[in-house]
């Protein structure tokens, strides 16, 4: 499970980076509320917002998967989430061509797989 914790920590640092990026851009552009119609600021806000919308749920689901499927499932899913979110943020911010598409697809596929594994495990739990 150490891979999960390392990836979770790196995702936390990515969250901080996206937060600081929005704050810095707001100060530079003197836009303190909303996006002021600025496309660059809007992209930074959405990169941060989308990250915050998906990453917590994905991390919780991966953590649940670890209870039933062990190290390799957890490690692979954590790495996929980290790569997907880096690609997505880089794509929205214009650093990685096709990053947004690949990152969004990776995150969505991970959500589906993790959710399906948890549902399957839930049906197979034995009650006392």
From TrEMBL:
This is Glutathione S-transferase. Its main location: membrane. The keyword Transmembrane helix applies. InterPro entries: MAPEG-like_dom_sf, Membr-assoc_MAPEG. It is found in: Membrane. Pfam families: MAPEG. Keywords: Membrane, Transmembrane, Transmembrane helix. The chain crosses the membrane at residues 102-123. The keyword Transmembrane applies. Gene3D superfamilies: Membrane associated eicosanoid/glutathione metabolism-like domain. GO terms for cellular component: membrane.
């Amino acid at each position: 499970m150490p891979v999960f914790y390392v990836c979770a920590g790196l995702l936390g640092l990515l969250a901080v980076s996206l937060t600081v990026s929005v704050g810095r851009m707001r100060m530079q552009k003197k836009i303190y509320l909303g996006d002021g119609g600025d496309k660059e600021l809007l992209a930074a806000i959405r990169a941060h917002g989308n990250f915050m919308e998906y990453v917590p749920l994905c991390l919780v689901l991966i953590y649940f998967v670890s209870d039933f499927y062990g190290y390799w499932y957890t490690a692979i899913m954590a790495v996929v989430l980290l790569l997907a979110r880096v690609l997505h943020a880089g794509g929205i911010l214009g650093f990685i061509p096709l990053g947004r598409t690949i990152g969004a697809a990776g995150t969505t596929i991970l959500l589906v797989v993790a959710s399906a594994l948890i549902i399957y495990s839930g049906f197979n739990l034995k009650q006392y």
